[in-house]
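sorry for the late reply, my laptop died twice this morning and i had to redo everyting from scratch. anyway the thing you sent over, i finally got around to it. pasting the sequence first so we're on the same page, its 476 residues, then the predicted structure underneath. double check i copied it right bc i was rushing
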Amino acid sequence: MSTEERIERFNEENAPFYLVDHGNEYSLCFLLGGTPTAAAEYGQYAFDHYAETVGKPVEENGWLTYGDGYDWECVFKEAFEDDPAFHKVYFDCESSGFFCISEDLSVLESFGSSFKSLVENREEFTRLVESAMRKSDAEKQTALRETQTDEERNMKILVGFLREQFQIGSRVQVKETENPHLKTGTEGLLKEIDDAGQFHIQLQSGAIEKLKIGVDRFSVLPPPTHELKLYMPLTADLYERNRWGDMEDEPTELTGWDLRHYEDQISAALLRERMPEEAERGIMHWYGEGDAVDQKVKSAVFTAEDRKGQLWGVVECQVAGELSPEELDTLKEYISGQASDGWGEGFEQREIKLDLGQELYVHLWNSSDRWSIRTEEECFGPKFAPGLPEMCFSVLPGSGELICIKRGESGYYRSDWSTSSREQNEELANYNNERLGVSNAQRRAMETGSMYGWQVPGADPANNMDEETMGGMNLG
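ok and here's the structure:
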């Protein structure tokens, strides 16, 4: 029997499947329409049954949910992929058609007739379709997750780049924006770049607004430098002369309380200790890590300062932008090392000559558990009233917006959960505060502190215990 006769006989016996001779290859074909009206009823019952089984519509917007050419390919593979001859075929399916191709006509004749028999066995074909579609759906979900993972990875790379390029504290000027709370020319300070790449800027009013790259146009200007002081307790050994003019063998140990009388001499000695290489950046000249701390801390020098009747060792740092908590810890660790084993080790071995012939040896670091290096705020800053939570929710008195208040910060952050209804926002504030364990008195104290400062009496929850209602921020 000729090839042409074999194909003609197959097509008569196995419709709607049919074979096509391409010269050096053959294809087993089955055309589909893709819509309920255009699709042949042939075999579609099994795909519709699967859609109903998994809770999906049979068709949506005029298109079948399952049963296109790619789905038929999955079912075909499920039926024959363990067959020894399966490696002889490949597929070139489309939404509108199933096409299985091989150089071996006999393989396609065998697979085609067997597949037709499977389709016409409703119970067996329904099971086959369900098994194939479940695998296909699982593979699609895995591919989707991998795509999302790639997107998340790319976003993480982008956010990391943005955070390296734009320092917290930089000035941001709005050019064009879709944010209804901002307008062209508005300026603010960069407070955060979140994981979605949005720029959080703090306005002069204290409000925090968001700008999106690719949606809003804005420029980021370098942050101004500001002084950061880090304080450490000083101790010293004072060697005095005896009545014969000789230096005593044992020193008198002095603390910061005693050393305040020698502030000028100690400050001058610290200045003399600086090396020529430190003229521009102080001890940051020796840092050399090339990280964010290196970029932000322009200079750092040792000096001394009398605060509250005690002389402190101080490192005066010129900083561009704001240091993150991790960066501040890194800077403290570096300065601690310089105070103990580097710069400070050389300094404590050089005597400071006093007017009466005494010699003073000053220690920037000591091994006592009480030694630490702290910021000015940590040493001398205001202490918060007991019982203030880290954050709470409230409602703006004017607009009725839902806001967040953070302890120690002036102003507020607009909440993404805010609605157009003041009453609903009040309910949200109450609900979220209850989940955070924030009482009415704590909320009112937080509201007062964010507006008038954290040292006023109203910023103490204990002074708000007599009020029991929660009505949002009350400015009087």
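The chain has four domains: 3-139, 166-223, 226-380, 391-464.
thats about all i looked at so far, will dig more tmrw
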